[in-house]
UniProtKB/TrEMBL annotation:
CDD domains: cupin_SPO2919-like
Protein's UniProt name: Cupin domain-containing protein
Alphabetized GO MF terms: metal ion binding
Domain Cupin type-2 span(s) in chain numbering: 46-116
Pfam short name (any one): Cupin_2
Superkingdom field: Bacteria
Originating organism: Caenimonas koreensis DSM 17982
InterPro entries attached to this UniProt entry: Cupin_2 (IPR013096), GPI/OXD (IPR051610), RmlC-like_jellyroll (IPR014710), RmlC_Cupin_sf (IPR011051)
Signal sequence, renumbered to the chain: none
PANTHER family: CUPIN TYPE-2 DOMAIN-CONTAINING PROTEIN, OXALATE-BINDING PROTEIN
Length: 160
């Protein structure tokens, strides 16, 4: 892939609209595949006023970083909440509920951000607000995506 195909400008991105219920909404694009990224995931997202793009969650395998390009909002991180604004870098390392994170646009203007994450072959995410646990891995038709409630855990030997 030539150097020219490894570069794309924000103004060239074709953003796709996403909405789930009243709370979750964004326009965004996964940039990594467009520029040939292999081990890092890159995304550009715009959150409308009053919306968030994803549930409060933590990662056991993938580390994430966010950069606020324009606007301001709230960062929920573990048990804390703080204001974030244009120019802020946000580090979300792996861990449990203490590293759970979510960015919410509580302002009257769009919040634009870039996210970068390590692309691990398998991942476990925890969702403290809903008590869910998700297991993800593989590619294509062999891809695993399994969500369950933490209180529905089974013993290792159950059914054996």
């Amino acid at each position: 892939m030539s150097a020219g195909k490894r570069v794309i400008n924000i103004d060239e991105l074709k953003l796709e609209h996403f909405q789930q219920g009243e709370k979750y909404e964004s326009r965004g694009v996964r940039v990594g595949p467009l520029i040939g990224a292999k081990q890092l995931g890159y995304s550009y997202d715009v959150l409308p006023p009053g919306k968030t793009g994803c549930p409060f969650h933590s990662h056991r395998a993938e580390e994430e970083m966010f950069f606020i390009v324009r606007g301001r909002g709230l960062l929920r991180y573990g048990a804390e909440t703080r204001t974030v604004r244009a120019g802020d870098f946000i580090c979300c390392p792996t861990g449990g509920p203490e590293t759970a994170h979510q960015i919410i646009n509580d302002s009257g203007e769009p919040l634009e951000m870039i996210s970068v994450s390590t692309m691990m072959p398998a991942e476990v995410c925890e969702y403290p607000d809903s008590g869910k646990v998700g297991a993800f891995g593989g590619e294509g038709e062999q891809r695993l995506r399994h969500m369950t409630r933490a209180d529905q855990a089974r013993d290792y030997w159950d059914g054996e």
